[in-house]
Amino acid sequence: MLSMILLLILSTAGPSAVIAVIGYAGIIALSRNPTSAPKIQMTMILGFVFAEAIALVALLVIFNLFVGRV
Fold it and tell me: What is the pLDDT of residue 28?
């Protein structure tokens, strides 16, 4: 049970850190060049989507690994 909890924490902490870094970099890029906001915004959204997709896949894999043990 403890291993499942640790894996769940790690599988959500990684994509959360990626989203934080993408958000920070996007804000810095927008402050340096506000005229390119649509391009930066689309890139940020794509990064968010891919990070969330990785988190969902990781959670589904962990759930399928441990569903019979609980």
Answer: 95
